[in-house]
Amino acid sequence: MKSIKTFVAVAALSLVSFASFAQSVSATASTLDRAEAKIAAQAAEQGASYKITSAKVDNRVYMTAELTK
User: CA-based, 20 to 30 A from 31: which of 5, 12, 48, 64?
Assistant: First the structure.
């Protein structure tokens, strides 16, 4: 029983530490390519990789992404 509690505690702590590395960023530009380039620049500045989570195109492009290290 003690080993199960220990496993659950370790699993919970590992999830918390992983979540602390995730960061949401956004960019606005005139094209999808330019918005993604801004996201990529922000990721490179922080030494992280990125995953685009949303993009909306009206007269301009609004893009959000999640940075992970």
Answer: 48
